[in-house]
Amino acid sequence: MVLGIVRSRFHVPLQTLGALLSLLGYILGHLHRGRQFAPNIHASFATLLMSLLLIQVLLGIYLKLHLSSSFHASIRPYTILSHGIIGKTMPVVSWVQMLFGGITALGFCRADHTGQCLAHFIMGSAFIAYGMVLTILLLVGQMWLRRTGRSQEFFDSLLIAAWGCINTFTEHRWGGPWVKNDLQHTSMGIVWWCAGLLGVWLSRKRDGRPKRNLIPAMVILITGWAMSAHPQGLMLSTHVHTVFGYTLMAAGAARVVEIAFVLRDAGSVDAEGNGDEASSWQYLTPFLLVASGFLFMGATEEQMAMLSEAHVSHVSYILILYSVAFLLFLFVSMLLNLYASHAWPLEPARTKQTEMMNGTSIANGHLDRRMRDAEEFELEGLMSDDEDGVKHSQST
Q1: Cα–Cα distance between 2 and 9 in angstroms, integer?
Q2: pTM of the model
Q3: Is 279 left (phi over 0), alpha (psi -120 to 50) or beta?
Q4: Would you tell me how many other CB atoms lie within 10 Å of the CB of residue 130?
Q5: How far is residue 140's CA from residue 11's CA, in Å, rounded to a whole number?
Q6: Which of 41, 4, 34, 36 minimizes the C-alpha distance to 19?
Q7: Looking at residue 204, what DSSP letter applies?
């Protein structure tokens, strides 16, 4: 997808290789004579996924032909739009299909476990997606965010409020008895939409300009505290949920420090589009959200029972989940760096001006402004000296 956005020459060969491997996997999955599965969501979703891939390939071939008649010229913009939308959708549907594959292979999420599985995998994926969105906005989305005229906390709070409304009315089967953790889940949804509404209100100043606030960070922190005390049936599950809660709390605390002390309520870019490179601290919150998502997805009842029977310690399991989170965050960072390198290539003359002080890079925008200020100061001094010399000669 990223290679297609930046129009890299490697896009078509890599897309072709990926399509061939997907087709081979689809054929082997239906023709093998090994382990057989009952009808499942993974097999059903594969047909939709392969249909999207086929449409994407056909649209790509059509665009590559560069047909120039009047009819083709009129439909080409819509073809490009459709090709781009499907391409950007593929990572999401592929993620869903991979989750379905793991669930099907292990035989999880059936009968009474379906609802609990849905909660863990949807919420865990949401935390990972939130971390990915924060990373995108941090590295390549600051100018877009500024053009919207809204602060990042406005969008965060809006989504938190919407998600809280959904949780409020879906975590309990209304009309039935309150069982297990229904009350805690429902009250957590209430906190989310209440805090989300407050965050939306605080995201603008009196004159309408965007304003940063700490409400989304506080929601993450409170959610982490609640999940760390979530009662569980197995000791292994208790440990995993506790670390999940602590990770969320760390993400919320890191966000508070970032907004209040690192950025001091400012955005990452100024009105002219200049700004520092993202500080090392700003990567903490997105990564911790990704890690918390993997921890929550890996804490379903059936997974915990299987690991407990295999005598796997919570320390080993949590370290493995953190390792997966590190790899995913590395992959996303590499893709964003690839996009930024093609979208905004650095000029050689400007890159030479970048200095290193105690391992910290001074941004080119700030350095250029300092150089301009110094030049203006020197010119003013020269002009004032010349004027004094002229006045002195006239007086003599």
Answers
A1: 12
A2: 0.83
A3: beta
A4: 22
A5: 21
A6: 4
A7: B
Alpha helices, DSSP H only, in 258-363? 284-297, 301-309, 314-343, 348-351
Q: What is the pLDDT of residue 385?
A: 47
| Model pLDDT, residue 160 | 94
Give the C-alpha separation, 292 to 127, whole Å: 7
Integer Cα distance of 43 and 88 in angstroms: 22
> What are φ and ψ of residue 282, in 5° steps?
-70, -15
Closest CA to 57 of 30, 74, 82: 82
pLDDT given for residue 283 in this prediction:
96
Q: Is 180 left (phi over 0), alpha (psi -120 to 50) or beta?
A: left
Q: How confident is the chain (396 residues) per 10-residue block, as mean pLDDT?
A: 84 89 84 76 90 92 88 92 92 94 90 86 94 93 89 94 88 74 86 96 92 96 92 90 96 96 78 67 96 96 94 96 98 93 70 46 45 46 47 48
20 Cβ partners below 8 Å, 6+ apart? none
Q: Give the pair of three-digit tokens for residue 63.
A: 């665009």
Contact 213, 155 (CB under 8 A): no
199 and 153 in contact (C-beta within 8 Å)? yes
End-to-end alpha carbon distance in the chain: 75
Query: Taking the C-alpha atoms of 362, 368, 369 and 373 in order, what is their torsion angle to the nearest 10 degrees?
Result: 120
Q: Are 215 and 202 in contact (CB under 8 A)?
A: yes
Output DSSP code: residue 66.
Answer: T
Structure-block tokens of residue 16? 């072709």
- DSSP for 210-264, please give it: B---SHHHHHHHHHHHHHHT---SSHHHHHHHHHHHHHHHHHHHHHHHIIIIIST
Q: How far, in Å, CA of 252 to CA of 285, rounded?
A: 7
Residues contacting residue 94 through CB under 8 Å, at least 6 positions apart = 49
* 183/174 Cα distance (integer angstroms): 12
Structure confidence at residue 344 (pLDDT):
79
CA distance 302 to 281: 36
Task: Give the angle subtended at the CA of 351 by the CAs of 339 and 366, to the nearest 5°.
Answer: 95
CB 358 within 8 A of CB 279: no
Q: In Å, what is the CA distance from 37 to each residue of 34, 42, 43?
A: 10, 10, 9
